[in-house]
Design a protein that fits this description.
With 95 residues, the chain is α+β, with helices and mostly antiparallel strands. It is built from 3 helices and 3 strands. The protein has helices at 4-11, 53-65, 87-93; strands at residues 29-35, 38-43, 72-77. It starts with a helix and ends with a helix.
Amino acid sequence: MATKENVIEVLKKVDDPEIGIDVWTLELIYGVDVIGNNVRIRMTFTTPMCPYGPMLVEEIKSKIRELNEVNEVDVEITFDPPWQPSEQLRATLGV
């Protein structure tokens, strides 16, 4: 059965196509829940108008479904709170 840690490892391999950094490091993931064989992700985008948003969600779902015994993957998009990079991430991005 998949664990939260397994899911996080998968998220660390899904890069935001515009920035080239994974969604976990970018702090776009607000929550990961594994309930039985189902995974629920709560996340945001760097901007509400992110042109790659739908593609990113589909890639996340596809990669998580590859984990053993995962039946369903639900990705909830929220903009509350709006994405704000941490100081450490700002330093990494050079902003």
